[in-house]
Amino acid sequence: MCAYVAENQQNQWYIGVRLIRMKKENIYVDLPENVVNIISKLESDGNQAYAVGGCVRDSVLKRTPEDWDITTSAVPQQVKALFKRTVDTGIKHGTVTIMIDKSGYEVTTYRIDGDYEDGRHPKSVEFSVCLEDDLKRRDFTINAMAYNNATGLVDQFNGIDDLNSKIIRCVGNPTDRFSEDALRMMRAIRFSAQLGFSIEDQTYAAIKELAVNINKVSRERIHVELNKTLLSDHPDYIMMMYETRLTKQILPIIDVVLSGRRSVVTLTMLKISPKELVLKYAALLNDIPADKVTETLKDLKLDNNTIYTVTKLVECSKLVIQEKEPSVREAIYKYGKDIIPLIILHQETILKAKEISTGIKMTGGKNHIAVLKRLYQEIMDRGDCISVKDLNVNGSDLMEYGLKGPIIGETLDELLHIVMENPKLNEKETLIAMIENR
């Protein structure tokens, strides 16, 4: 039943909402001033308005919301008329973004979604004056709560109970929710990983049943959810994607990694590797040939820099750099000053994971990593020559001595390797003398 009587939107409360408010009246959400002002302005014009969704959930959990979304009975044109600066970010679906200074606040009209014919988007949207209509179309109970200072918390689907029990549960029938939008299956696991929650049994069973539907979702949306899972506090929860057969649909090669005897080491690496996306992907894909890593990440539509870096980390996972400054400088020259520390961190993660899984101390390997870290930092702090542009001679200098064509590049490269062996030789007079002698 609707939380408001449509004929009199302003003050006609359905008694169910009063009961919910009484139960939840000890829940307080500290709304930002801009959100309070937006809600107040909408209400003063005779509308209802609430902060809704993830911002309410995170506030209750004492986490800092990434953004604040507002739901209202006002239709988009009413919202646009009330505020000076607005952007039609999704006006067809009822969303207007209100700009205050440099911050944007999405305001969306209560709505009822039509059929989801493509397994991702509703074919049609019907605006409503009923808050309950808007809340019951949402994915999970913990995301279906609304709040304003006048009413308090509106929690018609027991989201607070699920927060307290640390459970991810669909609003209503999970088969219906996942049939409407297949991406919600990955979102369930992502929220579980971010919050450290378990997934309710029926919700989990529905993911298994409908896993094949994930193929209806674009690779770009899939990698966003996968990225967030890998960067969460529990990246090893990706195992749930394997258990529910989601990875079989989106990343079949990962099934090989997570089903084999090395899965324990892989999951351990995911847990202990630094929270940097390229390092998380390198941990996940470390047992895969480098060319397959590239192929897998391209299929996920990741950006070229991420694909290159992860492939290089996997390729160099067994790279041995000698504990000598010239060797470290040569490695920096070959792989790049930004990738060398990542290679070292990845190798360190591999060592730690082996220690954890076998119980055998990797003292020699850890000492080697410590020496490489120190040498790298000393080289960077001194600003040693590690590229042609760092040489104290250039192509123009060589041309003055009669060099031309490809021999210029060859000579500069030769000088570079001499200087990387002995940085003290990087003086213009010394390098010129070498050219003359050459």
Automatic annotation (TrEMBL):
Protein name: tRNA nucleotidyltransferase (CCA-adding enzyme)
Similarity comment: family membership: Belongs to the tRNA nucleotidyltransferase/poly(A) polymerase family.
Cofactor: Mg(2+)
GO terms for biological process, alphabetical: tRNA processing
Keyword Nucleotide-binding: yes
Residue intervals of the CCA-adding enzyme C-terminal domain: 287-434
One protein family per Pfam: PolyA_pol
GO-annotated molecular function: metal ion binding; nucleotide binding; nucleotidyltransferase activity; tRNA binding
